[in-house]
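Repro case for the chain-ordering regression, as requested:
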Amino acid sequence: MRICLSIILFFMAPYLRAENGHELWLRAKNTGEVTIVCSKESPTLTIAKQELTQGWQGKSGAKIVLNIKKDKAIKGDGFKFTENEIQANTELGILYGVYELLRRQQLKQAVKEEISNPSYELRVLNHWDNMDGTIERGYAGASIFWHDEDKGYAVTDKDKSIWREYARANASIGINGAVLNNVNASQLMLTTECLKKVKAIAEVLRPYGIKTYLSVKFSSPSLIGGLKTADPLDPAVIGWWKNKIKEIYSLIPDFGGFLVKANSEGQPGPQDFGRTHADGANMMADALKPYGGIVMWRAFVYEANSKDRACQAYKEFMPLDGKFRDNIIVQVKNGPIDFQPREPFNPLFGAMKKTSVMPELQITQEYLGHSIHLVYLAPMWEECLNSETYQEGIGSTVARTTDGSIFPQKHTAIAGVANIGIDANWCGHHFAQSNWYAFGRLAWNNQLTSEKIADEWIKQTFANGEPSNDWYVNFLAPVKQIMLKSREVAVDYMMPLGFHHIFAPSDHYGPGPWWGPQDVRKDWTPPYYHKADTFGVGFDRTISGSDAVSQYSEPLRSQLNNLQTCPETYLLWFHHVSWSHKMQSGRTLWDEICYRYDAGQKQVREFQKEWDKVQPYMDAERFFAVQSKLRSQSQNVRIWKDGCLLYFQQFSKMPIPYDIERPVYELDYIIKNFTIDKP
Amino acid sequence: MRICLSIILFFMAPYLRAENGHELWLRAKNTGEVTIVCSKESPTLTIAKQELTQGWQGKSGAKIVLNIKKDKAIKGDGFKFTENEIQANTELGILYGVYELLRRQQLKQAVKEEISNPSYELRVLNHWDNMDGTIERGYAGASIFWHDEDKGYAVTDKDKSIWREYARANASIGINGAVLNNVNASQLMLTTECLKKVKAIAEVLRPYGIKTYLSVKFSSPSLIGGLKTADPLDPAVIGWWKNKIKEIYSLIPDFGGFLVKANSEGQPGPQDFGRTHADGANMMADALKPYGGIVMWRAFVYEANSKDRACQAYKEFMPLDGKFRDNIIVQVKNGPIDFQPREPFNPLFGAMKKTSVMPELQITQEYLGHSIHLVYLAPMWEECLNSETYQEGIGSTVARTTDGSIFPQKHTAIAGVANIGIDANWCGHHFAQSNWYAFGRLAWNNQLTSEKIADEWIKQTFANGEPSNDWYVNFLAPVKQIMLKSREVAVDYMMPLGFHHIFAPSDHYGPGPWWGPQDVRKDWTPPYYHKADTFGVGFDRTISGSDAVSQYSEPLRSQLNNLQTCPETYLLWFHHVSWSHKMQSGRTLWDEICYRYDAGQKQVREFQKEWDKVQPYMDAERFFAVQSKLRSQSQNVRIWKDGCLLYFQQFSKMPIPYDIERPVYELDYIIKNFTIDKP
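-- result from build under test --
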């Protein structure tokens, strides 16, 4: 009987509706009539009304009131809603309330009176889109904003249509800002010709409440302004920025502000002129202030010859705490290195008490399998946001030290590096859409669990009409489990136990722990990070090592510093540990490493099985696309496991436990075929 | 403690003696003095004495008598031996007795009085060596006999040294003949210049009792003889062959005879002139008769447009039974198709009752993973030799119908297509040496079990001096199990349940069930053999199909013809079976196919584990070489499994059972990367 059923279902699947995923999580179709009462008119309210009409799944013939009315309990663009009314301080609040109401309807959740306020004032996507249409760390095709040289700054109806869909998707999850270009910015961004295109984009995004921001190159005054310097204290430079900002606001009255990567990885900055990050940021902040613009200044800095790259940002920025203007927000990556599959939180969180600090998360999977691996990132972000900094006692989580709960920041914000491109499904991998979704949802409410977000996303993305009970049991449940496990599994098969940055150079996709040419700066090579030798492996960041632990507050500092109390998830991040060190499992470190890589491989194979089983419950096109990606992921995991175990075995000189599936590749083969020679 | 031991052993391994495998199974060093009494002198007896002196492991100071004395109980080059005496009819019998005595000593087996007679009179290697030094289906480097054009027919001391080692290895296992060149023969083989080189080879092989044979091209009289025809009934042609044979015997007085592939796969033959195979073979046999030479005439024939290639040889040769001269032996491949991983026995065995018939086995692994896969072939040959033909009632096994037990053949013989090349380890894969060894041992005694042969081979090849008890438990036992399972495992992961010839074209290495271009003769394409369609899969050879079953004797014919009684190992060989046919396991055919491929994959992974564990018990060089080959094999198995399951799933339209590890490759990728376009 089981067999017969399988066969029937297997046959049925291809006849389910095929589709390419372009609709994202916005699939609700109205199932009844609704009367909308709204006393005001505006482009944003028009959208709100359209959405209600198109997507209404509540009682047919119901009436709903959209009510813009001040209420102290409602913060910013938050809203209060019941089954029949949405109240907000702002038009945008109304629109957000509409999306929330429709979401509840689609999720079959009861609606009681409730207020929903955003955790962060600014919820911003950072697009690392280059002006030639390519995207740094983009894995879903070309930029939706910029074209290659042939098309230049042209704006077509098709462009506008995509931007509108993009804005709608963002608004539906509460995102209210977009930095349109790469932090490794081109000076051409600020040319008048280019700014006119930005104006066109901003006009499409505006009704959806998405403010436009730009990444700027610090040396723009000399590069395109004809000045001899970009010294932030030079009056001509200050004047140039003031004029440029005035020009921008004349085109885009609600322009959001600048994002700046300065004195980092070769980018120019104030230090080139003997000035501090604060000097540079304040100069820009002063010029933006009159228009309400802000500066997001990145703390992602590290010297080429630093003894420990993980310590650098803290060392450079802590002395500047309190020296930044109040319309500056220091943008800090979640961890102290660079968007690794797992990092401890960045010690600047909670430590900079007199500065607005915003987390920078990476939605695009630079270090997490690009658009090939199925990795749901919300658990990683949840882990970071819920990390205890202890900077103001227990409860000083990263979330609370950045969202205004603890420090009186003028602005609160959170940024996500986008994974969006021109591909039909926007993100390359259908499941990568969940990371865009999750970022928006967490930015709105940093207490949401990754489980709840996954549940919401799956239902909105895959449920087709009224799903059956079977669908809940055989689709929703297993797919949610895959998502929830996926990041920990990626950590296991890429870099368990605190390993970090052992990626192949340049593309950061496959393994590369062996890669370390003499002529490349050391902190761009994996051996700098893993420090494997015949004794053991791991980076000694204890007080007798690089002392990175001392950038954390007690009791965390002591906990991390002690080999016995340091969480094993961060073991090799903070300690250089003997291969025969006894782990909590009772195994040696070497054996534990082997079992982790193996567990990762086994889990991905389980994901494949689970996925194949859901075939009868979904459309063929997305089923096969994801199946194919999982196959590739499973292949890649083999490369990770074989490559890392065979490489580190050269140091441990210990056998891979014999109950573990053996390598099928030679290390030399992997090195030759899966490492790119130059970064 | 277990861990510590592992570590110590892991470290130790590299310090064990490294070696390249060139010594084969001939590693015995003398451990004591021996006095040899022998009243005669000859090159062969000199070798016998040298071997005894070099390899003596019996009581030190013992005396042994080599006694050439007729004894009716001793047949051909057989021998009688005790601890102190070897008696034989011939010098070669003495040499064989010496090798057997030394083997018993090395295997620590007691020696009682015993007679050992060979199962077959002629125990011949067929070298498919081309005269340019390449080897058809050779995977161990170039020919040891022939060089590329630059060297031509030159004979160096190094050549002679290799030939001597080769002859010694053959003699040690009882092989007494070698066909020096490819059955797809060049006419140049019979030129005087070339025959002089053959003479040089024969002189080196002679003292070891290896007779020299040549493959000849049937059209040689016209190609190099200046005649207008090669018609076997043409007096000029007959004259040409007589003269050529006379010339050969003037150079090589003990020349063995010819091997002929005629009217097969484009080779010329008597049918080109309206004559039969018997006409062609008899002409040559008559010319060879005066010198004691024989003709081995191959039955491997099939027409391009045959309805069933498997029926062809029987159809062509059965009418000729009784028409061949008594110095002709018809050489019949073990199965009716072509050295597949599993075939039913060739129906000519036992059916040709008035003709000498010899089995042709393939030692080189054309269809069994070349020199990459570890596949011990003795179980396959044992299976064939022990197959009941029922042609003369119960007990008419393939072995007994070919070794003279049942039919009064003038000559008995067995041939093995060699896997020998110039590589240091002779056979490419260290374990491929076991197949050379096993062929020799089975040719001498076709009742030996593959288990006993494996035991002998492992001990002689890997035991170093006096092995410890640990070695028996942790090396001999698991390695023997790997060997004994290896062929059934290969069947599982390549072509279980009677699948056959679904190989990639040309190289016959990877899977190619999909390969069937329109412009290629159908019987060279896999779909001709598997006949997959939406109903099912397999070749209908029942009486309502091609009727190949009727070439077998009752009760076998009826057993094979009936879907319910046909052994599942041959199911798809004889039947076109519904995908949902219920197998003995209770599974559907489709599921059973899936589980078989999966079982093959799991087993190869187990082999890898078992092999990795033996590292402490052997030399590093061979350990790592085999480890590396097993890794490649494991990769290949993945291609086989994914490729075959995804391909056949297109017909079955049934899901791969969900407890089976999912494919990691796309079918298109495998087709593109693992199929060669033209045969």
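Ordering looks correct now. The domain at 122-462 of chain A is CATH 3.20.20.80 (TIM Barrel).
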